[in-house]
Amino acid sequence: MIAPRSRTFAVWFLLCTGSALAGPGPATPRLQVQPPRDFGYAMGDILEQTFTVSVPAGYALETGYLPQTGALDEYLEVRGSKWHLEQRDDTSVYQVRVAYQVFKGVRAIETATVPALPLRFQGPGPLTATLPEWRFTVAPLIAPDLADEQVTTREAQPPVALPTRPHATRLVGYLGLGAALFGLMAWRRHGSRPHPFARAYRELRRQTWRGATPESYRAAVQRLHQALNETAGHSLFAEQLGGFCAAHPAFAELREELAGFFRLSRRVFFAAPDAPLPPDYPATRLQALCRRCAQAERRQA
Questions:
Q1: Are 283 and 220 in contact (CB under 8 A)?
Q2: What is the CATH number of the domain that holds 35?
Q3: What is the predicted pLDDT for the residue at 21?
Q4: Which residues, if any, are the signal sequence (predicted)?
């Protein structure tokens, strides 16, 4: 014979194991409806029914059961349905939109109904939801006291022809003004800016070359290199002087002086970078070469 305490423990054990084996309860979808207005519709109007249904991950909406395009009843026809799936952690959220069009003409205000919409899901177990029916009113387009034979239809009025010549004239004026402004901006950006050697010569003229240091001398050499590179459109080297003078004929008469300048540059920066200022090529000679190059670029322009 089992003692009372043993029987109590046995019952408690069976209850606990039974609830554990039973697992979680059935999944339930969460339905949120965004109803449109329920009044003021007439023949030809389109109304949209929008709702959101959330189900556990692993369940998929059977979209084939959504309303198909075509007549629904004497009041409505289905224009189409759209849906969008968004995964949020362990939840699948379906946003569904069904469009209906009122195609019945009424002679007095009547109430129509969008029928309830059953939703079915595929997943680990059976899962369904139902979108409740929705009622709305349809209003007449014709006065109720007007007989059918008294109704006359009017052709659609063509659009009123507006004069376009003043607009075309203004458009041409605006385009001309825009072109002029664009040209002015381009001139200010390129035309009014001094040429490379003109800018370099202006900078060298501001220098005080009496008592010049090796650093200021090398800076002047670099400034002439910069002007040559800007004029050529790339880094110019001594062996490229022939092509440079062919592309810029105004500099042809300065080819020998430019070749001497490149020899000076190699001596200043590579052969003897720590040597004092070269006595055979003073800074004033650099300034004079820059001035002659500025004159050549003016002739070239």
A1: yes
A2: 2.60.40
A3: 39
A4: 1-22
CB distance 57 to 40 below 8 Å = no
The predicted pLDDT at position 198 comes to 92
Cα–Cα separations (whole angstroms), residue 183 to 70, 178, 180, 196: 61, 9, 5, 22
Structural domains counted in the chain? 2
Q: Where are the beta strands (DSSP E) in the chain?
A: 30-34, 46-56, 60-61, 70-71, 76-88, 91-102, 110-114, 117-122, 127-131, 134-138
Same domain, yes or no: 210 and 133? no
Q: Is 107 helix (H, G, I), strand (E, B) or coil?
A: coil
| Contact by Cβ (8 Å): 65, 121 | no
The residue range of the domain holding 131 is: 30-142
Instruction: Answer yes or no: is pLDDT of 61 > 60.
Output: yes
Contacts of 145 (CB under 8 A, 6+ apart): none
d(CA 147, CA 163): 42
Helix, coil or strand: residue 174: helix
Same domain, 207 and 138: no
Pairing label, strands 110-114, 134-138: antiparallel
DSSP string, 24-77: SPPP--EEEEE---SS-B-TT-EEEEEEEEEEETT-EE-GGGSPPSEE-SSSEE
Last residue of a domain, one of 96, 115, 142: 142
CA dist., res. 100 & res. 48, Å (int): 6
CA dihedral 115, 121, 125, 129 (to 10 degrees): -30
